[in-house]
């Protein structure tokens, strides 16, 4: 924009003075000498995301999952970070258009749906809410307590949770699942058919787990259908922003902070967060909680989402995984972002001591 001519400025000053705002105008320096306006301070959220992106973008550790053949073909260089606050503001950096399959992160939202339909005791009384200390598809963990004393974040508990969603037909169950996920993400989600087919052709171990959970009475009927629906839910396609919005909905007491849509009852959210904290990163959940304090969930597609209750949801996609099946870069980037923003819900300042008068008055009574 070109500068106004000086004569225009003088005329404008006289007009403003006549209008009674002389103090402001008289104090203003001549136009040519005016200091440039200070750049607006960068948002601390955006700065945290950009900082974490720059710090970890060149880290090349870990390896794509390959026990599901389609996952081995995903670009290992995808690296996107997104954060959504409980007042509905979204911040992103890196690759946020690429999508990966949601995989085990889906377990959180299927659990949420079961808790909404049947109450929190249904989960605790069926598969349990305790860590197994085993890998996510452990059969030893099923055998140890005949399918009890585990949780809905590991495969046996997750396939069982899927089997608990009410519906007269497979379609009815599926529609409930995908609409729940879509409400949390704030947009209609769909299935990556290549990933679904690839896992359906190679998921014999999960089929065996489903049959065992049926044999022990945790799955009441149609174990192979439960396994198939579970496989399809794992193939739902998401980007980093979708995952961050899903996490932010949990951070915001179950109501999507962007769309305003209630997705689950606020009273049930702590039950879901508790299991995420206990088992969201499998046998590395303790290390994760120690580092961040955040309930979180990983998926072998390379995504991790984490919840800072009452503050924000944050998510990262980066496909290469560590030995426990958790994205290497996602763990590091989320920890960095959260620690920069004070996201740890266990970190608090001591309360200010009471003034001495207040104490002495109390004693006299
Ligand atoms: O059932 C499976 O093996 C996969 N569909 C999901 C496993 C998974 O994402 C474990 N997460 N880190």
Question: Can you give a write-up of this model?
Answer:
By secondary structure, the protein is α+β, with helices and mostly antiparallel strands. It is built from 17 helices and seven strands. The protein has helices at residues 6-18, 22-27, 44-56, 69-72, 106-118, 120-126, 140-144, 155-163, 170-185, 193-200, 204-215, 223-234, 240-251, 269-279, 285-292, 328-341, 356-364, and strands at residues 80-85, 90-94, 100-101, 237-238, 296-298, 303-308, 312-317. The strands form two sheets. Strands 2-1-7-6-5 form a five-stranded antiparallel beta sheet. The model is unreliable at 1-34 (pLDDT under 50). The structure holds 6-diazenyl-5-OXO-L-norleucine. Residues 103-104, 136-137, 155, 199, 206, 234, 298-300, 325-326 line the site of 6-diazenyl-5-OXO-L-norleucine.
Task: Identify the overall geometry.
Answer: globular
* Rg result: 26 Å
Helix content: 40-55%
Low-confidence stretches: 1-34
Biggest sheet, open or closed, and with what strands and sense? 5 strands, antiparallel
Portion in strands: 5-15%
Quick recap of the structure?
This protein is α+β, with helices and mostly antiparallel strands.
How are the elements arranged and paired?
Blueprint: H1 6-18, H2 22-27, H3 44-56, H4 69-72, E1 80-85, E2 90-94, E3 100-101, H5 106-118, H6 120-126, H7 140-144, H8 155-163, H9 170-185, H10 193-200, H11 204-215, H12 223-234, E4 237-238, H13 240-251, H14 269-279, H15 285-292, E5 296-298, E6 303-308, E7 312-317, H16 328-341, H17 356-364
Antiparallel strand pairs: 1-2, 1-7, 3-4, 5-6, 6-7
Helix pairs in contact: 3-16, 5-6, 5-9, 8-11, 8-12, 9-13, 11-12
This protein binds 6-diazenyl-5-OXO-L-norleucine (DON).
6-diazenyl-5-OXO-L-norleucine binds at residues 103-104, 136-137, 155, 199, 206, 234, 298-300, 325-326.
């Amino acid at each position: 924009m070109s500068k106004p001519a000086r004569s225009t400025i003088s005329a404008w000053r006289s007009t403003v003075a006549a209008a009674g705002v002389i103090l402001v105008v008289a104090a203003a320096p001549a136009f040519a000498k005016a200091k440039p306006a200070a750049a607006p301070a960068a948002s601390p959220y955006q700065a945290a995301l950009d900082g974490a992106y720059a710090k970890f973008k060149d880290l090349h550790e870990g390896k794509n999952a390959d026990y599901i053949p389609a996952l081995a073909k995903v670009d290992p260089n995808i690296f996107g970070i997104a954060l959504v606050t409980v007042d509905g503001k979204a911040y992103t950096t890196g690759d946020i258009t690429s999508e990966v399959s949601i995989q085990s992160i889906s377990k959180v939202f299927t659990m949420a749906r079961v808790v909404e339909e049947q109450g929190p005791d249904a989960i605790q009384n069926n598969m349990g809410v305790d860590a197994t200390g085993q890998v996510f598809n452990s059969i030893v963990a099923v055998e140890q307590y005949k399918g009890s004393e585990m949780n809905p974040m590991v495969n046996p508990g997750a396939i069982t949770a899927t089997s608990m969603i009410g519906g007269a037909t497979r379609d009815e169950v599926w529609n409930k699942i995908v609409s729940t996920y879509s409400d949390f993400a704030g947009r209609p989600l769909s299935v990556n058919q290549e990933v679904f087919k690839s896992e359906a052709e190679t998921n014999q171990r999960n089929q065996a787990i489903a049959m065992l959970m049926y044999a022990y009475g945790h799955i009441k009927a149609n174990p192979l259908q439960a396994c198939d629906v579970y496989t399809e839910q794992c193939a739902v396609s998401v980007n980093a922003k979708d995952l961050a919005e899903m996490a932010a909905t949990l951070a915001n007491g179950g109501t999507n902070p962007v769309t305003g849509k209630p997705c689950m009852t606020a009273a049930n959210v702590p039950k879901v967060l508790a299991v995420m904290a206990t088992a969201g990163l499998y046998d590395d959940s303790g290390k994760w909680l120690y580092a961040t304090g955040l309930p979180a969930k990983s998926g072998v597609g390379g995504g991790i989402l984490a919840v800072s209750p009452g503050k924000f949801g944050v998510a990262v996609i980066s496909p290469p995984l560590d030995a426990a099946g958790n994205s290497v870069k996602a763990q590091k980037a989320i920890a960095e972002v959260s620690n920069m923003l004070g996201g740890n819900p266990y970190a608090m300042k001591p309360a200010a001591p009471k003034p001495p008068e207040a104490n002495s008055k109390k004693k006299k009574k």
